Amino acid sequence: MINFFVVSIFPEIIECYTKFGILSKAIKQGFVSVHTVNPRNFYEKVDDTAYGGFPGMVLKPEPIVAAYEHVLSITSQKPFVIKPEPWGKTINQHILNNLKNKKNIIILCGRYEGMDKRVDNIVDLDISIGDFILSSGELVALSIIDGITRLLEGVLSDKESLEQDSFSNKWLGYPVYTRPEEFKGHKIPWVLKTGNHKLIELWSLWERIELTVKLRPDLIPKKLTNIEKLFLEAIKTNLSFEEILGWNKKLV
After folding, report:
1. pLDDT below 50 — which residues of the chain?
2. Is 86 a catalytic residue?
3. Any catalytic annotation for residue 218?
4. The domain containing residue 186 runs over which residues?
5. Both 65 and 129 in a single domain?
6. Predicted structure pTM score
7. Residue tagged active-site, from 40, 86, 120, 126
8. What whole-number distance in Å separates Cα of residue 245 and Cα of residue 6?
């Protein structure tokens, strides 16, 4: 079980999200717990003007550290402390996989112009979700919690779904379809109606490779299977899935 502690002056943002979807189910089943800690419970004034005449308000160090010390008093071991920052490490699946092994995680949510720098003394990792600015750290905290929770064994009812996720697999994801078979003139790919599981698996691999080549060529792995090499070269030369099947009867 992972215990998440979110330090936030607007805890309702976190508490609302925990009532829905996979996270709500994971909490009810005891895979995770999510607690909010409001710095206002320890200090009436949580922010002040910045030294040096800089604009905006800054969260004071005392209430943040007091919230941290409160968590220390109720946990059996030192929590791992994360602070959302624009310059932090950009979160990815590898980071989430490492974090899922932590027992207690504190996420410090900033506001206004950020937190007093001296809070960094208790921080283990600065994290970012991209090169853009948000009003606060709560959305980052929820991204971290959600991303870690769905990796825990037993949380997702379909384990294969997790294994097929983009960034869990070495290629990006494949497109998915449901009923109706035709929508506004657009039909589902013919392959999906064949019932040929090997052919469908080949199609999904082709789609993954094609999407990766188009959108994230930087993610193309160096170690490839023979079929991956064949598909990759075919896609780069603008061949279609049907053409490559026609030329390689042994694939199916």
Report:
1. none
2. yes
3. no
4. 182-251
5. yes
6. 0.86
7. 86
8. 52
